[in-house]
Amino acid sequence: MFSATPLKGQRALVTGGSSGIGAGICRAFAGAGAAVGINYMSSAGPAEEIAGEIRRAGGEAMTLGADVSDEAQVRSMFERFVAQFGRVDIVVANAGIQKDNAFARMELAEWERVLQVNLTGEFLCAREAVRRFLAQEPTALSRAKGKIICMSSVHEVIPWGGHVNYAASKGGVMLMMKSLAQEVAPQRIRVNSIAPGAIRTPINKAAWETHEAMARLVELIPYGRIGEPEDVARAAVWLASDDADYVTGTTIFVDGGMCLYPGFADNG
Ligand code: BGC
Question: pTM higher than 0.90 for the full model?
Answer without folding.
Answer: yes
